[in-house]
Fold this protein.
Amino acid sequence: MKKKEIKKLSKDEIMKNIDKSKKDLFNFRFQKISSQITNPAKISETRKTIARLKTMLKGKLNA
């Protein structure tokens, strides 16, 4: 998810995306352990997306 896309989201949508991304990350980790993951770069990409979402959420809460 790009920074521009995240800026357009509301607080509730950001929270939903964080939860969804955390679930995806959990599943990617299990796929990695069982050697079923097709694209290992998805793990780091998902972690970065969660960090971006949390940063934007914190900014919106403080504003």
Notes: The first helix runs from residue 3 to 7. Helices lie at 3-7, 11-33, 41-62. The chain is about 80% helix and 0% strand. The radius of gyration is 13 Å.
